[in-house]
Write a structure and sequence with these properties.
The chain has 208 residues and is mainly β. The protein has three helices and 14 strands. The model has no long low-confidence stretch (mean pLDDT 91).
């Protein structure tokens, strides 16, 4: 059966894997995110949504030279890091990853509803990784509005704080959970995305 594995490495950093091929998204620089373990991964590709130090530490990922064949089609979609057309924090790239008929998207530090053209390209997602902590990105209500526009099967919140990790200025998960509807808490940092999954928000565990 088709499957994509998504592992949360903290903050907005994820390892997305299919057929043994691994992509790390938005690795953060050492010490840049309070409470989060430094990124040290071996993978086949690294993608960054923008050039802020808590999202662009490519040196934290050692790239394999003779890894498996790449099953992913990667599409970079334009968006903004704020709600004023990038005037405050600049551009942000949304990455759409497709493999084995599955479609997952990492929204980076999206700061506003993407354009209608991008929303159209992000329909029929099996999973979306979306920031929910506000201040630097969309907050709970704006994030939920994006979720409703995209209608993905699985929502994976990121870029928030807890009692043990994250920036003080960010919101906790509670505000998003109040508006997101059905959610499931996992005792693991990894989720396997498969076809025909039900609609829910997946709360992954960050172990540090």
């Amino acid at each position: 059966m088709a499957a994509i594995q998504i592992k949360w490495l903290g903050h907005s950093c994820f390892r997305v894997e299919c057929e043994g091929y691994a992509i790390v998204l938005d690795p953060f620089a050492p010490g840049s995110v309070p409470g989060c373990k430094d990124i040290s991964e071996t993978a086949d590709q690294v993608l960054c949504s923008h050039q802020h130090h808590d999202h662009n530490y490519e040196a934290g990922v050692t790239l394999r030279e003779d890894g498996p064949q790449n099953p992913f089609t990667v599409t970079a979609l334009p968006s903004f890091h704020d709600d004023c057309q990038g005037a405050q924090r600049g551009p942000n790239t949304i990455h759409l990853l497709e493999a084995q008929g599955l479609r997952v998207a990492h929204l980076g530090d999206v700061g506003a509803m993407p354009s209608p053209e991008v929303v159209e390209q992000l329909q029929n997602l099996d999973a979306v990784m979306i920031p929910v902590g506000g201040f630097y990105t969309v907050g709970p209500k704006e994030a939920q509005a994006i979720v409703e526009a995209l209608s993905p099967r699985v929502v994976i919140p990121m870029h928030y704080r807890s009692d043990t990790f994250g920036f003080d200025v960010l919101s906790t998960l509670e505000g998003f959970l109040e508006v997101c509807g059905r959610w499931v808490r996992f005792d693991t940092d990894t989720l396997e995305i498969t076809p025909r999954m039900s609609h829910y928000t997946a709360l992954l565990t960050y172990g540090g």
